[in-house]
Amino acid sequence: MSETFCGLVALIGAPNAGKSTLLNQLVGAKVSIVSRKVQTTRSLVRGIAIEGAAQIIFVDTPGIFAPRRRLDRAMVTSAWGGAGDADVVALLVDAKRGIDEETSAILDKLTSVSRRRILILNKIDTIEAPNLLKLAEDLNKRLDFAETFMISALKGHGVNSLLAKLAGLMPKGPWLYPEDQISDAPLRSLAAEITREKIFERLHDELPYQITVETDQWKDQKDGSVRIEQTIFVTRDSHKKIVIGEGGQMLKSIGSAARKDICEAAETKVHLFLFVKVRENWIDDPDRYREMGLEFPKE
Fold first, then answer.
1. How many CB atoms lie within 10 A of CB 244?
2. Which of 47, 124, 159, 252 could pair covalently with 58 via S-S, beta carbons 3.0-4.6 A apart?
3. Stated pTM of the model
């Protein structure tokens, strides 16, 4: 039997550094939602890629930022937990933003992480080459990185080279997942996240990021299709009206876009039914945190 390799890579960085976009590129399919609204990834999302004899398990962590609310603290704790369990910790930095306050704080805390660290400069097409090289030099002065990569996650530039290098860093061991599996997230969870992504695509400026979506029903039909019922939870009645829209048009638009992506993920026809409810204090409900795979902060 040929030798195999398997390991865990944690993608960490400030909000909107491009971690979810990079994860989807590395895996070759949507396993993590992408939004220009910060802090949309809430829990650890695992994507699985095969490169030669290596199986690489990527963890897309919530963006690391200065937490102010209970949900913020749970997300940041989850992110650092993912880094502590990994064989390789990959710090993703938005090249245009450079070393801002959030990235600087991450660099300081990474000094205590004993795992192999690599640096990934993303969005390299948004910065002049001399400034990019200077940024790479400054970051490596701040922290000792084993490797530095320059990529555009959105366009896919440099992603294949990054994947090949990461494969070479994986420890020997059996693969933990079947060859055709690209994520360990249940389809019903991914479906809920896809709907949340479509909400933020359309209502980026109108809604706070605390909005959440839950899949209430996933029923296989006799014709091979799937009936899915989801509830969109908002914290105010005014937000409910925004999500529904005039004559229900916004909700229809969200549902249509979400159905398309869910069909692709489920590889079958999908009948999607969306409902909107107000749940004022869900952000203080431990059950909601468990639904998202987060540990409920005591204080």
1. 18
2. 47
3. 0.64
